[in-house]
Specification:
heterotrimer, A mainly alpha, B mainly alpha, C alpha+beta, B: mainly alpha, MetI-like fold, 16 helices, C: alpha+beta, D-Maltodextrin-Binding Protein, domain 2, 5-stranded mixed β-sheet
């Protein structure tokens, strides 16, 4: 027993040490980005150093981005896209993945092949645009969330997770009189919370960061999501224009604008993650098997 | 009672029976079909309908003239792809880098996930997870900028290396360092995020197995090796097979940002090469031809990987 | 990126133009140039048209509706839809617009490249040569600029005119003075100055932390082109005369070999940064402004701004800059800087719009007005008190409403600069002086243009980019690896076998044909 305890301790210790080491390595550059976002025009020399902590708390860059006329509307658009988009994503993906996970489903094989095929071949930008255009979705936010409703990769992997649920559970539910819909909503979904939380996170991040579809499918800056605005601001900052946003004051240094952009992009998602944390719990899968 | 039927009747009855079971099947599975319908419609409309556009690869495509009216070019763009004097070098670079990525970058999240899974303190677990996710949110532009700051001739890491005896380390311009640099960069940026899937998969492993192993006297490492790892084996296999489909994709933006003339011998990959050759000028036909070729190669790779996996006893993708 | 810089400058020129006009003694006349004087042909101002325009966005996107749009709608009796696209994805957006049939009436095309020729060939654009003579400002556009957007005899574009002056070399005057050096006039003298800057501690801080010339490399373009153009070596996409009646691409030009030798020496000796291949233009610019390097090349109308000076003085109060006159070429002939193409982007009209003559005239009227500084300027500022306030010193300040919806934000083109450039009168004297000096210096002697402008060759369109990249990559590798100059000859040989030979032949045929006219 003594030796087990010590071997456990050593294992844990080494494990944690290695992980902490890796964490430090990933954290340091992020700290640097954070520090740079607070620099302003008068300490331009600091840009050449590898700062680890802000030398000052100057929110000029954040303010600059905030002051762009469409900051709030673009933030609103992004929130809409993320919420509505992710709901659509999860709904379409999980329902499809569920059916394809049932062993006896007759369409399983060819549907999976069909989905896989789309991961390798696609028509390209213009044909897809023509389809979206033909459906009248252009110039609306729906053009952002519908053409990307299902990610083939996510669907295939989610199906694998669903397949991991013991068939016996589903059989016993069938015997109890549950139909496929019931099984889906009352058994499979609750038992798959970790997987669902994972893909919710994936989809949410993708929706939050998306910009290309917006540029292609919408023509008005009122529909811009946050990422398009941020990219534009960074580009403007790098092009040496005198006060693109506000002609009466010089803009902050381009690098600190760029770093502030990163903060705007990542912080909301980092806030989302702990919220999803509670779904990443063990235990729900297994109680049912024994019963 | 003996029923004699002739052959024709027999066939008709068979088919009749199959049709019967077909309809019965459908009715039995009606809810499954209902659930799969939204996704099917999505794929049909937004993925398969635009696929007619693949024909662009065989035409001299002009967006104004339209897909139908643009003149045919046959295999001209494929020929151009093959005729390019650098095509072999670029292909080789792509394959080597892809191999490195699969060999090194692919497995790091698995190892990390296993390690994180072993942590007993939930707060520490959460802390480490949050921190290692952070680089995923940085754009490659920012990452390239950070690496420049660290590794240029006046950079912090360069000074450290000089202190260790490596004078004049030109990490960013040394062709020999390019591939390792890209790999390290990828690991740093994406390994943390990649653990999410594996951690979710690890939750599906029966904790009783660990108990049993503990009683049998297995140490932590042994438990990890014999229980956790096999527990996620099917997930790993699927992800690996899928990864093979994109074997010719090595990440355009990252490489593009790290390229410079001194490393282009080893650094140029298909996507960056195609970019310089014509995407900038809106040459959609050429891009379509390359995309089609990549798709075919990817298909072959997935098929082989899947076959191999099944051969080895695993379930496979299909 | 090359295009955006001058474009931004144009916007600031416009701003200064507006300031200049406001200071001018002529009263600001807000009434529109009546359509009746513009075109006698059918344009009934009572007919309302829907006008859709697409252009590249260089700043904060203006409001999609509001005062500015309304004012424009009223002035021209149109229903104006202004679509501004972030520049990085413009090509894709252009393609989808043309593919789907939702083609804007006025579209900006960045340059005469394969995209332009393909669309022109397919009949996407309206030929304009018969129309422009009826408009006061459109007809003032120089013919040689118009030639650059002409295809098969038809004019398709209305260019956005920009200053002709191009790159120029800047130098730390205070460093020259401190080390008792005269302004360099030849490449030999330049090299000596660079050596002195690197080795003789020009900033007097006792440390060897300075070097000669700041250079950067991005997207296949070595900055500090101003150091190369005096010896007639242009950026790789530009061509120069080869002295024998023909033309050649930049680094393959007659003096190219000598220049490669020289820059290789510079690199080896440390007169240019060892990292220049990795640096971006903003980084090399910073090296110059913050006192690491003593020489830097940039656009004449861009380089000497108050922001840059402030940045430099903040780091070093003794900072003094000056303009280097064009150096004598390496082969001994007189050197001069190069000229720009005279435009940055041009507007095309959709062929579909051509079905209604009235609409065509309306569209051209809009463009014509915008090219007239005194016509558009007061209109573009909006209402006083709401969108801007007049300051005591004659300058204007825009309110936040002004920054988001005044009519000037929806411009599709810009006024033709009178003379070469409008210098903002509200700038400090020191800046005004050096800006004028920069422009004069850039235009001194016999500045020359990219000889490939308006010269078309099929191989250049098909393979031009990859050949340029191959050549430049090779040149840079010779420079940084310190390879012997014989490798340059080998490089040129290989480059020719890859298709450059054919390209040069075709370009020369086309060039001779063009000049025979």
């Amino acid at each position: 027993m003594f030796s087990t305890k010590w071997s456990y301790r050593i294992f844990d210790g080494t494990n944690i040490l290695l992980l902490l080491g890796f964490s430090v390595l990933t954290f340091i550059p992020f700290l640097h980005v954070f520090a740079m976002s607070f620099l302003s025009l008068d300490n331009a020399k600091e840009f050449q150093r590898f700062l680890l902590w802000p030398t000052q708390w100057d929110f000029t860059s954040y303010q600059y981005i905030y002051d762009t006329r469409i900051f709030f509307s673009s933030l609103k658009n992004t929130v809409w896209i993320t919420v509505v988009g992710t709901l659509i994503n999860i709904a379409f993906t999980s329902s499809m993945a569920y059916s394809c996970s049932r062993r006896s489903f007759s369409g399983k094989r060819w549907i999976m092949l069909m989905v896989l095929f789309t991961m390798l071949f696609n028509g390209g930008l213009i044909p897809t645009y023509l389809v979206v255009n033909g459906l009248g979705l252009i110039d609306s936010l729906w053009a952002i969330v519908i053409p990307s409703a299902v990610s083939a990769f996510n669907m295939i992997v989610l199906k694998e997770f669903f397949e991991g649920i013991h068939e016996s559970i589903l059989e016993s539910a069938k015997i109890d009189g549950c139909n496929d819909l019931g099984i889906f909503f009352r058994i499979v979904l609750p038992l798959s919370l970790p997987a669902l939380a994972t893909f919710t996170l994936f989809y949410a991040v993708a929706n939050w960061n998306q910009y290309f579809a917006s540029i292609i499918y919408t023509n008005s800056s009122d529909l811009w999501p946050l990422q398009v605005l941020l990219r534009q601001v960074v580009m403007v900052g790098q092009s040496d224009i005198f006060g693109a946003i506000d002609l009466s004051a010089p803009p902050p240094p381009p690098l600190s604008i760029q770093m502030a952009t990163v903060m705007y992009t990542s912080l909301p998602i980092l806030l989302l993650y702990p919220f999803l944390q509670k779904y990443f719990v063990k235990g729900m899968t297994l109680g049912a098997v024994k019963g | 009672m003996e029923v004699t039927t002739n052959a024709g009747d027999q066939i008709r009855t068979e088919a009749h029976r199959r049709r019967q079971s077909g309809f019965r099947r459908l009715r039995k599975e009606k809810y499954l079909w209902l659930l799969v319908l939204p996704g099917l419609i999505y794929f049909a409309v937004f993925k398969y309908l635009p696929m007619f556009g693949i024909v662009i690869a065989f035409k001299k495509y002009n967006p104004f003239t339209g897909i139908w009216k643009s003149p045919w070019a046959g295999f001209e763009y494929f020929q151009r792809m093959m005729d390019s004097p650098d095509v072999l070098r670029v292909l080789w670079n792509t394959l080597v880098l892809s191999f490195y990525q699969i060999a090194f970058v692919f497995f790091v999240p698995i190892v990390l996930a296993l390690m994180i899974n072993e942590i007993a303190y939930p707060w520490l677990k959460r802390l480490i997870q949050t921190v290692i996710y952070l680089p995923h949110f940085l754009s490659w532009v920012v990452v390239a900028g950070v690496f420049y700051l660290l590794f240029n001739s006046g950079g912090s890491v360069t000074s450290i290396l000089a202190g260790l005896g490596y004078d004049n380390a030109n990490v960013l311009t040394d062709p020999a360092m390019f591939r390792p640099l890209i790999i390290l960069q990828s690991i740093w940026k994406e390994a943390g995020w990649g653990t999410i899937l594996y951690l979710a998969a690890l939750l599906g492993v029966d904790p009783e197995l660990y108990e049993a192993a503990k009683i049998d006297g297995a140490g932590r490492f042994r438990q990890m090796w014999n229980i956790s790892l096999p527990g996620i084996r099917s997930t790993v296999c699927i992800l690996l097979i899928l990864r093979m489909g994109s074997v010719l994709d090595v990440g355009f933006e990252q490489i593009f940002l790290m390229l410079n003339p001194q490393v282009s011998q080893v650094g140029e990959v298909i996507d960056t090469y195609v970019y310089f050759l014509g995407i900038r000028q809106g040459n959609f036909s050429f891009a379509a031809a390359v995309g089609l070729t990549k798709g075919i190669v990817g298909l072959l790779m997935i098929a082989s990987a899947n076959w191999l996996t099944r051969r080895l006893g695993e379930k496979g993708l299909f | 990126m090359k295009v955006t810089k001058p474009a931004f400058t144009m916007l600031s020129i416009l701003t200064t133009a507006s300031l200049l006009a406001a200071c001018a003694s002529s009263p600001a006349d807000p009434s529109p140039t009546p359509a009746s004087t513009a075109s006698p042909k059918a344009d009934d101002m009572n007919k309302k048209y829907a006008v859709k325009a697409m252009t590249i966005l260089y700043g904060n996107p203006p409001a999609a509706s509001g005062y500015g749009i309304q004012a424009i709608n009223e002035r021209y009796n149109i229903d104006f839809q202004f679509n501004s696209v972030p520049s990085g994805d413009y090509n894709n957006k252009l393609a989808t617009a043309f593919a789907s049939g939702n083609i804007p009436d006025i579209t900006l095309i960045e340059d005469s490249t394969q995209t332009f020729y393909n669309y022109a060939e397919a009949g996407a654009f309206l030929p304009l040569e018969d129309y422009i003579k009826d408009y006061p400002n459109l007809s003032k556009i120089p013919q040689d600029v118009l030639d650059l957007m002409t295809y098969k005899g038809h004019l398709y574009g209305i260019p956005r005119i920009r200053a002709a002056s191009n790159w120029v070399l800047s130098i730390r005057k205070d460093w020259l003075d401190k080390l008792n050096l005269p302004m360099p006039t030849t490449y030999e003298e330049l090299t000596n100055v660079m050596k002195a800057f690197t080795e003789n501690d020009p900033d007097g801080n006792g440390q060897k932390d300075t070097y000669g010339m700041a250079m950067s490399y991005a997207s296949g373009f070595i900055s500090s082109v101003a150091a190369f153009t005096p010896t007639k070596v242009m950026p790789f996409q530009s061509w120069v005369e080869d002295g024998k009646g023909g033309i050649l691409p930049g680094w393959a030009a007659p003096n190219g070999r000598e220049l490669v030798k020289l820059v290789t020496d510079w690199y080896r000796e440390g007169y240019i940064s060892k990292d220049f291949v990795l640096m971006k233009s903003s980084q090399s610019e910073e090296d110059f402004l913050l006192g690491k390097a003593g020489i830097h090349g940039d656009f004449a109308f861009n380089a000497y701004s108050p922001e840059r000076l402030n940045k430099a003085r903040a780091a070093n109060p003794d900072f003094q800059w000056d303009v280097v006159p064009p150096l004598t070429a390496l082969d001994g002939t007189e050197g001069s800087y190069s000229l720009g193409s005279g435009f940055y982007g041009f507007n095309v009209l959709s062929a579909k719009a051509g079905s209604d003559e009235g609409k065509v005239h309306r569209l051209l009227q809009i463009l014509d007005d915008q090219m007239n500084a005194s016509g558009i300027v007061p209109f573009g500022d909006g209402e006083e008190g709401v969108h801007f306030t007049n300051n005591a010193d004659g300058t204007k300040s825009y309110t936040s409403l002004g920054n988001s919806e005044r009519p000037g934000l929806y411009l599709l083109t810009n006024p033709i600069p009178e003379g070469d450039f409008l210098i903002n009168p509200s700038l400090p004297d020191e800046i005004k002086q050096i800006q004028k000096k920069a422009i004069d210096t850039a235009l001194s002697g016999t500045p020359y243009k990219d000889a490939s402008l308006g010269v078309i060759s099929k191989t250049k369109i098909d393979k031009g980019e990859e050949l340029s990249k191959f050549l430049l990559d090779g040149v840079v590798n010779i420079i940084v690896n310190g390879e012997p100059i014989d490798n340059y000859d080998l490089l040129i040989e290989e480059w020719k076998t890859r298709g450059a030979d054919q390209m040069i032949q075709e370009m020369n045929e086309s060039y001779k044909a063009k000049n025979a006219k």
